[in-house]
Design goal:
Elements (H helix, E strand, L loop, with lengths): L3 H25 L23 H12 L2 E6 L2 E6 L2 H10 L11 H6 L13 H14 L2 H6 L1 H21 L3 E2 H18 L13 H13 L3 H4 L1 H4 L6 H25 L9 H11 L8 H16 L1 H15 L1 H15 L14 H13 L9 E2 L4 E3 L2 E3 L4 E4 L1 H5 L43 H18 E5 L12 E2 L5 E2 L4 E6 L4
Parallel strand pairs: 2-7
Antiparallel strand pairs: 1-2, 3-11, 4-7, 5-6, 8-11, 9-10
Bound molecules: protoporphyrin IX containing FE (HEM).
The site of protoporphyrin IX containing FE (HEM) has 25 residues, from helix 14, helix 15 and helix 19.
Cofactor: heme
Protein name: Cytochrome P450 71AU50
Organism: Coffea arabica
Amino acid sequence: MMSVHWLWSTLALAAVCYFLQDLFLMKKRKGLPPGPKGLPIIGNLHLLGKNPHQDLEKLARKHGPIMYMRFGYVPAIIVSSPEAAEKFLKTYDQVFASRPYHEASWYIAYEQRNLTFGQYGPYWRNMRKLCVLQLLSSHKINSFLPMRGEEVGKLVKSLKQAASDGASVDLSAAISSLGADMSCLMIFGKKYMDKDFDDRGFREVIQESLHVAALPNLGDYFPLLGVLDLQGLTRQFKALAKVFDNFFDKIIDEHLESKEHKQTKDFVDIMMGIIQSETSEFDFDRRHVKAILLDMLLASMDSSATAVEWAMSELLRHPEAMQKLQKELEEKVGLKRIVEESDLEGLEYLDMVVKESMRLHPVGPLMLPHESMEDCKIDDFHIQKNTRIIINVYAIGRDPSVWPDPEIFVPERFRDSNIDLRGQDFRLIPFGSGRRSCPGMQLGLTVVRFLLAQLVHCFNWELADNIKPSDLDMSEVFGFVTSRATHLRVIPAYRLAK
Ligand code: HEM
């Protein structure tokens, strides 16, 4: 147990160090972008509430699209317009392609050996190449098409049953469970039950990880205070790391012992195959496999499901848009059968709905933090090495100088427009852009489009508990995946011939 005397001495020493650093930073402030005035030691940390993307959007309206802030010891630039985002993610992409120290990833993701939080360099480049070519290629994504069809079909069946019983359903829970099942089948080759993982259950641990990893952590902003673990987060990270590590070890062992001949190789098979064939051009062992498994699991499980949840919420609030989408699907697919992935080509209104929903509700509103690897000048502003760069995609999607009536859901705004969401047009970047952009974009978009089309085509929907569409609560819970604060409860009515 740490003595009280020692605790106070450490805090006093930390305070003196940070105070001296404040004085030093004040001198260096010249040439930095404008930003809110900071307090001694904590800087601007007090300005961040439960939904930091919304707080930062308001601040940027006052201080500008390239805004300087300081979170404890860490200087940060908040980017809130398409033009500014283009400079950071395209013009100077290489300078800003690293990730900062992140205590959660340090403990949970094998000392940041994962792709998501790996620092820019040869190791990260090799890991990214491996994931893009071996795990997330079009060929690999297509090989899981039958699995996706089967799992979405099971969801339709259970909703059909609820419809014939006239029962209401928790659509958020149903979609999230489908996301978990599809991820497990693709990554591990089988579904895992809650009890296989930890007493708390599979999805709960994943959601806890995504939440705690995104929380403002004093250990990230005040390295000296990190050792004291005042928020208890380090303990939580270590406990989560143990749960994941045991789980991944068990799965890898099961794969190594299995004699089953699989037609479609899952991600564990592919990566263990690379280790066994000794063909890897870089250091790649069991620890790296586990780090990638963690990435794939955390990145895929809730992201697409949450995007569908938001799109369904907006369609329920806008019945005329729901009807237009049903009409488009009816013309393409007819009312005699459910949607196949091969139907998705050329569904213009579906694409417009997905874009509009991702504009208003980007799943990762602050993306993942980037870090500058050298000093750089942007718009005459001086950006120091090791500055944290936060791209506020949420603010970009609601920038009134780019989007007329930005708060209103109008899919038609994308009709006859060439704005795409794949990272080429900085007005709409839900998957990021440049070197660190999302390598799972094709898979994510496929799942979102397919599942959304299926739900809208197979059912008419009503909000449960007599809630009027205009009264639906749209509050958010911030995290690396930002989802609805309340679950979406609905009553489905099956609309197909059989
Ligand atoms: C609708 C679904 C998804 C959305 C909206 C989304 C969005 C994003 C965003 C905004 C980033 C950060 C970009 C940056 O920091 O510049 C990211 C990174 C990443 N995403 Fe996704 N994502 C989705 C689905 C997926 C899926 C299905 C996978 C994999 C199975 C995946 C894997 C990753 C990985 C590994 C990174 C880190 C890349 C790196 O740092 O090099 N994502 N994603």
